[in-house]
C-alpha cells in the first residue's frame, strides 16, 4: 500500500466550510484521514507550509477529445501543470462517440481526423479504448447531439422523421447506459441549429431519466444571446421544473458593446436558477476563440465544408458572402488566425495583415484561407470585455473552464494556441489573489466541487475521507499564468504538487511520468 502525507497546508476542502490548517493522509488512491498528524509516517511526505491545499481542478468544458490530444498527448501536460485532474469532453454537440462507420466528421472543424485510427463506435467502445491508454487526467464524456443526428441522416439539414427520432432516442439511451454523463448541443452550428424545439425536448426527457447533464453551446453568443437564453426558458416551461435536467451553458462571454443585452441574459439566468439547476462556464480572458467559418453568413456553410468550398469557388456566391460580411461591420484587425490546416504562414496574424499580404480586403482574405484549408481554420478575436469577464466570474452561477485541450509546452510551427490551454486555472487564481474578485473559498468551489456536482461525479471534487485523492498544492502568492498571446507556450507559476488518484503527477512544475488517470462513467 502506497501512502502520501501532506502536512501543514491550509486546506480548502471544496465545501462552504471555512479553511484551516490540516494534514491529509492518502493511502493508495483514496484520502484515508484528515487531521493533525505530528507523528504519522508515509512513503512520501509533502510539507505544504505556506501553501493552499485544494481538491484537483475539474475542467467541465474541455476540448482534448475535439482536438484529439487525448490520444496524441495522453499525459495532457498543459492541463496537469495547471492543477487540472479531471476533464469532460463531448461538448458543443460533438463527441468521439457514438459514431457510425468510424466517422468523426463532427470534430473535423477542430482537428485533422486522418491522424487517428477509429476502431470504436459506441460510447462503451470509446471508453474501453481510452482505458487501454495511460492518461495523466481523469476523462469523462457527454454525447454530442450532432454525432447522433449526422449518424442518422448524414449531411441533410432537416427535421427528423418519427422513425429517425426513435432511432436517436435509442442511441442516446445506449450512450447514457454506456457511461456518458449527459448530452451537449452546438446550436450555433448548422447540424444542431436546424433541430426544432420538439427534438430537444424529447432528448432532455431521456437525460432527466438518467439524471444526466444538458450542456449547450447557445444558438447565439453575441447579438441574440438573450433570445438564446429565452429558448432555454421555453424548454424549462415545456418540460416542467421537476422534469428539467441540470443545465450548463458553455463558454458564456461578455462581448464589448453588448453589455445591456448580457445583463438581461444574466438576469434571466438568475431567475431560472431559482427554479432549476442552471449555470454557465467561462474562461478568464478577453480573447474569444472561434472556428473561422462562424464569421460567415449561416447559409454559406450550410451543408458542411464541402459545400462551403463550392460556395467560395462560385464567383457570384462569393460576392454575396463578401457583401454580407462587409455589412456585419466586423473589426478584422481584432481577428487573429490561430491555425490554418497545412499552412504555418498565417498563424498569429490578423485578417487585416493577411489581406495586405495577399492584396485583398480582409473579407476576401478570410474566404481565401478557408478555401485553401478546406474550411479548417481557427481564429481568436480580441473582443471580450475585461470588466464584463470579471463580473461573470463573480456571478454565483458561473464555473471556470478552459474550453481548450491539453497540449505540450514545445511550440508547434504554424499553430498559435490560445493562452487558456496553458494558464486558465492559475490565471483565475491570481485574479482571486491580486484583484479580490472572490473569496478563496468561493473561487476553489467554482473549479472543484461545483463542477463535480454539476457533472454528477461520485467521490471527487472534495477533500473528504474515502474520496479519490485528486489534490493540488499551490502557492497563493506565486500562483499565476505566464502564457500570453505573443508567447503562449509557457508554464504557469505556483502550482507546486498535483496528485491524481493517490499518485504524484506533477512536482514543482514538472511531470513525474506517472499516468494514473481513470476513465469515468456515469453511475
Give an account of the 3D structure.
Helices cover 33% and strands 20% of the residues. It contains 17 helices and 21 strands. The strands form 4 sheets. Strands 1, 2, 3, 4, 5, 18, 19, 20 and 21 form a 9-stranded mixed sheet that branches. A 6-stranded parallel sheet has the order 9-10-11-12-13-17, with helices on both faces. The longest helix has 16 residues. The relative contact order is 0.17.
N-to-C span: 27 Å
Radius of gyration: 23 Å
Total E-strand runs: 21
- Regions with little confidence, pLDDT below 50 for 5+ residues: none
Alpha-beta content class: alpha/beta
| Helix-residue proportion | 25-40%
Number of helices: 17
Give the strand content. Answer: 15-25%
Mean pLDDT across residues: 94
Gross morphology is globular
User: For the report, how would you describe the main beta sheet?
Assistant: 9 strands, mixed
Amino acid at each position: 500500500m502506497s501512502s502520501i502525507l501532506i502536512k501543514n497546508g491550509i486546506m480548502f476542502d471544496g465545501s462552504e466550510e471555512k479553511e484551516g490548517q490540516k494534514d491529509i493522509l492518502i493511502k493508495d488512491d483514496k484520502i484515508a484521514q484528515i487531521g493533525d498528524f505530528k507523528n504519522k509516517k508515509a512513503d512520501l511526505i509533502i510539507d505544504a507550509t505556506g501553501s493552499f491545499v485544494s481538491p484537483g481542478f475539474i475542467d467541465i468544458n474541455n476540448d482534448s477529445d475535439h482536438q484529439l490530444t487525448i490520444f496524441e498527448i495522453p499525459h495532457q501536460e498543459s492541463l496537469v501543470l495547471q492543477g487540472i485532474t479531471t476533464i469532460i469532453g463531448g461538448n458543443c454537440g460533438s463527441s468521439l462517440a457514438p459514431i457510425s462507420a468510424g466517422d468523426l466528421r463532427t470534430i473535423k472543424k477542430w482537428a485533422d481526423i486522418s491522424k487517428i485510427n477509429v476502431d470504436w463506435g459506441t460510447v462503451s467502445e470509446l471508453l474501453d479504448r481510452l482505458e487501454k491508454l495511460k492518461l495523466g487526467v481523469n476523462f469523462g464524456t457527454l454525447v454530442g447531439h450532432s454525432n447522433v443526428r449526422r449518424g442518422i441522416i448524414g449531411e441533410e439539414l432537416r427535421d427528423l422523421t418519427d422513425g429517425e427520432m426513435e432511432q436517436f432516442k435509442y442511441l442516446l439511451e445506449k450512450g447514457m447506459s454506456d457511461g456518458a454523463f449527459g448530452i451537449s448541443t452546438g446550436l450555433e452550428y448548422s447540424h444542431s441549429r436546424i433541430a426544432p424545439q420538439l427534438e430537444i425536448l424529447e432528448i432532455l426527457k431521456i437525460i432527466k431519466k438518467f439524471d444526466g447533464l444538458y450542456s449547450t453551446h447557445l444558438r447565439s453568443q453575441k447579438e441574440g444571446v438573450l433570445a438564446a437564453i429565452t429558448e432555454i426558458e421555453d424548454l424549462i416551461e415545456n418540460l416542467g421544473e421537476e422534469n428539467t435536467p441540470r443545465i450548463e451553458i458553455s463558454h458564456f462571454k461578455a462581448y464589448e458593446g453588448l453589455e445591456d443585452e448580457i445583463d438581461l441574459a444574466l438576469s434571466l439566468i438568475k431567475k431560472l436558477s431559482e427554479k432549476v439547476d442552471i449555470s454557465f462556464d467561462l474562461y478568464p480572458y478577453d480573447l474569444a476563440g472561434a472556428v473561422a467559418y462562424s464569421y460567415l453568413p449561416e447559409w454559406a456553410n450550410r451543408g458542411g465544408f464541402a459545400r462551403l468550398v463550392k460556395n467560395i469557388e462560385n464567383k457570384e456566391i462569393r460576392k454575396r458572402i463578401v457583401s454580407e460580411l462587409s455589412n456585419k461591420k466586423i473589426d478584422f484587425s481584432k481577428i487573429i488566425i490561430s491555425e490554418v490546416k497545412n499552412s504555418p504562414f498565417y498563424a498569429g496574424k490578423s485578417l487585416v495583415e493577411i489581406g495586405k499580404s495577399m492584396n485583398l480586403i480582409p473579407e476576401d482574405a478570410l474566404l481565401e484561407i478557408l478555401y485553401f484549408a478546406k474550411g479548417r481554420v481557427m481564429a481568436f478575436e480580441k473582443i471580450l470585455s475585461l470588466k464584463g469577464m470579471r463580473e461573470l466570474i463573480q456571478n454565483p452561477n458561473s464555473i471556470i473552464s478552459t474550453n481548450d485541450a491539453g497540449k505540450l509546452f514545445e511550440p508547434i510551427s504554424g499553430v498559435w494556441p490560445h493562452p487558456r490551454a496553458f494558464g486558465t486555472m492559475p490565471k483565475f487564481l491570481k485574479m482571486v489573489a491580486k484583484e479580490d474578485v472572490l473569496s478563496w473559498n468561493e473561487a476553489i468551489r467554482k473549479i472543484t466541487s461545483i463542477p463535480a456536482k454539476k457533472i454528477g461525479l461520485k467521490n471527487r471534487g472534495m477533500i473528504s475521507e474515502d474520496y479519490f485523492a485528486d489534490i493540488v498544492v499551490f502557492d497563493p502568492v506565486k500562483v499565476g499564468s505566464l502564457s500570453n498571446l505573443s508567447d503562449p507556450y509557457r508554464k504557469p507559476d505556483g502550482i507546486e504538487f498535483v496528485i491524481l488518484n493517490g499518485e504524484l503527477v506533477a512536482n514543482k512544475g514538472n511531470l513525474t511520468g506517472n499516468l494514473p488517470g481513470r476513465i469515468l462513467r456515469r453511475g
